[in-house]
UniProtKB/TrEMBL annotation:
Domain Choline/carnitine acyltransferase as annotated: residue spans: 200-801
Family matches, as InterPro entries: Carn_acyl_trans, CAT-like_dom_sf, Cho/carn_acyl_trans, Cho/carn_acyl_trans_2
Species annotation: Cryptomonas curvata
Protein name: Choline/carnitine acyltransferase domain-containing protein
Keywords tagged on the record: Acyltransferase, Fatty acid metabolism, Lipid metabolism, Membrane, Transferase, Transmembrane, Transmembrane helix
Subcellular location(s) of the protein: Membrane
Amino acid sequence: MAEARAAVNTLRVGTLSLEQVTSAAKLRGVQVHGVDGGILIVIPSVKFLWRQLVGRIRYIGQNFQTLCWPAPVWGVLVAIALFTAAVLNSASDSWLRNNWVANFLWSVDENLIGFLSLSEYFPRGLRILYISSYTAMASLLFLSLLNRLVMRIFLQYRGWMYERKPSIATKIWGALMKSFFLGQGQSALMYSFQNAMPRLPVPPLKETINKYLRSVEPLLKPDEFSEVETQAQLFLKGEGANLQRFLVAKSWLSGNYVSDWWEKYIYLRSRSPILINSNYYGLGYAYHIPSAIQTARAGVLVHYFAKYKRRLDSEQLPPTTIRGLVPVCMRQFERIFATTRIPGRDSDLLKHISGQTTTHVAVLYKGTYWRVDTLSDSGLLLQPFQLQDQFEALMSAVDNADSSGLRVPGKDDPEANIAALTAWNRTRWAEVREDYFGEGLNRMSLEEIESSIFVLHLDDRAPADWTESGHLSLHGGGTCRWCDKSFNLLVFANGQATVHAEHSWADAPVIAYSWEWVLSHESISKVYDKAGNCLRPEASVDTAALAAKPKKLALRGPTRLEWLLHAKAREAIAEAVVHAKALCEDIDLVVDCFATKTGGYGKGLVKQFQCGPDAWIQMALQLAYFRDQGHLDLTYESAATRLFNEGRTETIRSVSKESKEFVTVFLDPNSTKEAKIAAMRKATDRHQDVSRDASCGKGVDRHLFALYVVGMGLGKDIKFLKEALSIPWRLSTSQIPQRQTEGILDKIDESMVSPSGGFGPVADDGYGVSYMIASDDQTFFHVSSKKSCKATDSDRFKGEIFRALQDMRAMFAK
């Protein structure tokens, strides 16, 4: 720590002034600010313009490389050169120069040049050169596009998802996929398969209606179900067919028939606070903290997030595949960094800054906000120790405010709680933003936060267990999570680290993959010394490289973001704090692990019972919920639809006739073990079929939702759709995959697991359950509910889940 403190003394902290804003803005682009009744116009620097040009050229190169795949760029260029040389060296009466294609191209070029009056300046040899070159280029790109088209046709096959053992057809399909598409020598870029992703199909209307009726029948009384069935048939024979035609047309004219509407109407149009109601969290390591020094841990994690961003910007992240054969859509990764949800009076807006235009993080520490760059002045990534020095500098300035002369707001000062505005009702936040943060110093500081790649909170609290970490990560008390940012990185005083994520820009598996990538690289890299500080040049393997480039490693110190808050702005923040704290105080969250070492078990035992782990847990949840509430309710489980272009999620309706029968048989004291096992197998088999259908685009809820949007667009408020979509999800569940980072998993100890993350309950009188099947020996559960609901209790329900899992194991006891 002494080394770090000494290095901090060489850094200077500053505050956001006109000079600071101008300096920072010249590295980003044109900005216009109203300051003190005047206008400040910032013109980009030459350095910024050069970086933009280089970035644009690199972007074009990446697109060209993606377009050329599976052929390497050099191979394409060589092929073009060889073809051009062959044409140039051929006789004028040869087939290469006199076939009908050559004559047609020559005629087109001649007419074009004649139209532009340039023919006299273009020698015949030059014209042959560029005509043959672009002909070769067009031919090769046509073959590449044909490759994508054929691949898209192959990817329509879904038989492999429904088979316990691969059929002959699946084996042949897999061999062809491996040979002609995924098994080729040229490494694919991140978006190499994107143009081959199939479009999400619109399911047959009758099929969706029948699935819906089947899912609600176990939950309704006979007369209630008869009424719903009648409404469904009337819709099917009436307006349904017309709405279906509109939806099919949209599916052919857009990248995805539902994803854009889902983002707009489910997320961005919602006016409720997004804290707890929409945002979610992810925890770090379950049993390990690499360094107990807060600033060192922050330096390493910020460094690897910045490194990860560079890989995304250069499309060097390998595309994700299932079983190495089936690619999934990577579009959601585009908006991980530098994305902010901007509040609006009626609808929010997602603002994303692409490329290397922005490279700084916004840092929150004890109510003060700072800008910290992740790159040196020459564009090199700052090393972890350099970032640690910056964090030490700003923390020292705040902690020693009397000697540093820094003005630090008190804990209850509205200035320290500005983030509470992002946790408020979206319309109220939009109004306050327009009224008090729309110009001058406040606007400049707000733009620094909203343009940052993410927000880092150096939290001075130290969570003692998973449950406390969950609470602090989900809401932090309501006043310190910048809920609008794509994600917040939270590093606590004891070195623990977690993330808090906004939901509209992407789904949880995307941030989970990114978080795992960063944690994995931290784990396999030697970045800490024995004391827990970041390694410095004299102790680093990069000593020579760092010493050789002292000027390139020059960096600016952290910059304090200032605010000028008038009385009404302070009143608005104080009101937002009251609402945010009320939300936080009402949440009941428990995080625990069902593990072999504490008498539980993991997926290893479940597989011995020849049952799917996810279906097993879902049946345990149904059993636990019935014991807790005395009845079953509509249950949501998320399924990814990233097998399709721009796919997001679909709903797995976990309650079925089979699951209800399983619960009934299991709780019948007269039932035999054999009867219970038989009922369980029928229920889990049914659940797996529903799950596969959902992932294959044959679910119920997104289709009904899209039909409802079409109906509203046509001015038709259809009772059947409205009521179908209004039934509350009193049990909302989700499973997050782990160990997704291919290529480095074999270097990581299997004990380096994360408890994953969780979310708030969807219904005020229900439960939210997130679970992570971490290994053969443990499963983590995050259970949430509202304290204001007397019928729910998270700890009680967690106990019922564990009890159900134990009882289900007992079925197989000999």
